[in-house]
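Troubleshooting entry. Yesterday's outputs looked truncated, so today I'm pasting the complete records for two proteins to confirm everything comes through intact. If either block looks cut off, that's the bug. Protein one:
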Amino acid sequence: MFKFERTQSIFEIGKVKVGRQPGIAYSFIGSIFYEGHRIVQDKSSGLFNRREAERLILVQEEMSEKTGIPYILQ
């Protein structure tokens, strides 16, 4: 398995740890508001599909509960 040669820093944001060697899950970070994502309707005005965004956030919460891995939404 790939491993970074340098020592990796681990930061704690609230109760969520971020930063690690590959294969060690502390948290996962989802991003849905980037240019090109299907929910973004107009990047200039910040218009997005709110209903679909809420659905995606609920899916992330569900996956966190199933796996026990905390999440951060970017």
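Protein two, checking that the full record survives here as well:
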Amino acid sequence: MNDEQRLGLVKAARSAALNAYAPYSRFRVGAALLTVDGKVYTGCNVENASYPATVCAERVAICKAVSEGETRFEAIAIACDSRRPCSPCGICRQVMAEFAPDMRVIMVGEDSVIEQRVTDLLPYGFGPGYLTDNEDE
């Protein structure tokens, strides 16, 4: 991923955050997902009065991409309206690891940016390989 793609991804994530439905937390998050083919899918958090039904921006973007047949991802930018970058929750980390454990995760706040790989955010994560390890036994 080059610098132009990185900046475009961050801009798309910030723009997506503007569409967040966050009447309860007032914490808006946007995500922009880059496929290996160069397509970008965006998402925002969608809250619900029944809090467990809330969907994070990262999973919205990933589900949009998967619903369009995309499953190979290069990077995701996550932007929030706080000073510090926001890190993906555990469920989002698990979903990212399902499709792209080596994907770059660009976490953006108002004051700084942190970039890591999914495997750095979810070391020893559970993945599809665990479901097939015991097939020969």
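Both blocks look complete. Sanity check on protein two: The CA atoms of residues 80 and 121 lie 18 Å apart.
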